[in-house]
Specification:
The complex is a heterodimer of chains A (98) and B (410). Chain A has a domain at 39-93: Alpha-Beta Plaits, CATH 3.30.70.20. In chain A, 10% of the residues lie in helices and 19% in strands. Chain A has helices at 47-51, 77-81, and strands at 33-37, 57-60, 63-67, 89-93. A two-stranded antiparallel ribbon of chain A has the order 1-4. Chain A has a two-stranded antiparallel ribbon with strand order 2-3. In chain A, strand 2 and strand 3 (63-67) form a beta hairpin. Chain B has two domains: 2-267, Rossmann fold (3-Layer(aba) Sandwich), CATH 3.40.50; 271-405, 3-Layer(aba) Sandwich (Rossmann fold). Classes of the chains: A alpha+beta (98), B alpha/beta (410). The interface between A and B is medium-sized, with 18 and 24 residues.
Chain lengths: 98, 410
Amino acid sequence: MKKQMTRKEMPLGTVIDSPGCSREYKTGGWRNLIPVRNAEKCTNCLICWIYCPEGCIKVKDGKITEIDLDYCKGCGICAEECPVKGKAITMVEEKKEN
Amino acid sequence: MTNLQTKKEPGSVKDIKSARFAAMTGNNAIAEAMRQINPDVVAAYPITPQTEAVEEFADFVANGKVKTEYVAVESEHSSMSACIGASAAGARTITTTSSAGFALMWEMLPIASGLRTPIVMYVANRAFSAPLNIHCSHDDTMGGRDTGWIQLYSENAQEGYDNMIQAIRIAEDQSVRLPVMVCLDGFIISHSVERVDLLDDETVRKFIGENKPPYHLLNVAKPITIGACALQDYYTEHKRQHSEALINSKDKILQVADEFAKISGRKYGLFESYKLDDAEYGLVIINSAAGVAKMVVDDLRGKGVKAGLLKPRVYRPFPGKEIRDALKHLKAIAVMDRVDAFGAGRTPTFTEVASAMYGLEKQPLMINYVYGLGGRDIRLEDINNVYEKLMDIAKKGKVDKVFDYLTVRE
């Protein structure tokens, strides 16, 4: 996640002082849990890719490359749906700076 | 301390070039200030007892006396919305309201302050319904004291006029950028004719200067977004920034008052201290009733009673430390409000003053009265009774009943 501005760094009021900023707004900030994937256990069945409501499971050539934490809300659906015995994705508490 | 106190300097007005005197109601005086300010936009809706001010200003617009864009709206919710849009676009913006109109604006009030739009609003204080009442209580602005606006209270038409002009400077200052309410008592002041000392147009124009918004919507070279959403990740930082700006505005309010004294000969502070320095018994009372109370103070002083009075002018930011320093030597204090904070068992100003006293080793004894609701007259003898109660409390060294209504048929 991109470092968040302090109140002193923020522009006055609620102004966003440049256009096109929604691209920079990472909506993953309000989660408490993050998915952690065990690549050795993962069979790349892509069930998580199908179920993820935020499209955060990144796939290249039929294989999972990463989970996009900029937008992951920590809902845990990927871990819940993971069919691998003993789970290839587990949800763990995220340590936050503030 | 002297710069914290309102001191009228007799005769000094004569030294001010081109000063004019006029017989005006409070509403007239506010409309005249608005004409001299000549704002870019006024969006307002008439409501008793503020109506005359906005009506008169509409005349100025129709007769070409001002260059203002007057937006005729269908409600106060719309007037405040239009003002927020105009102010965000960089326009110098004013509106006016009372009571139910203020209540209808409510949703927009924290938006105006949260967006840091420097709108100036005149409020002729009026009671809330029910029962329906068009006269003065401070229900409206006291209810709105925590909406993030600066609040200036005015004893009479003169103070209303002076506060309007200063409010523009305070609101638009680069270090402040917050909306300001200028409050005076509906009917009691809004409709009573008094002598008002007026500044000439050029002096006002120079004093208020130009509005220089750091960001505005009409600057196509620098597109911005105003009013975006901020959730758990940024909302707290916005509120903290706003809170600090409001508290820090105190210094700017005093600085503007100093500059205003130079052009008007009238010196304002955070509050008015009336014969408080050596006082033993004091009142804390806002707006027009302070005028009546000062007469009683004079009368009691003539009888050798050390009476004094503190009249808050700047209510937000609340000058707690300064008020504590001004009151801490008193034996007994009565805090009086023209409003009840239902269910609190104390009125808003009592809560503020008592909180300011917190931590003092030796606190004055304090009592709290609700008075003058819905425009009920407060008479000299009523105030005198309060001072007698204070003397009695001081003599006994204890308070039997902190909170009560004054002049109520039980």
